[in-house]
Amino acid sequence: LDDSNVGRFAKYLHKLTKNTQFIIITHRRGTMNAADRLYGITMQEKGVSTLVSVNLIENDLDE
User: Domain range spanning residue 49?
Assistant: First the structure.
């Protein structure tokens, strides 16, 4: 999506979040900025994955 459509998409999802949860897979910063929480998987060692989550509402980092 281009930047203007990312914004429209985020507003649309925000309206629906009162009754529904969404899992969105994205690399777009604008979509991530609209989220309440982000999850990421990193692999610093071959075969070892690490989950990282960021709560954007409270602005804390959980590992």
Answer: 3-62
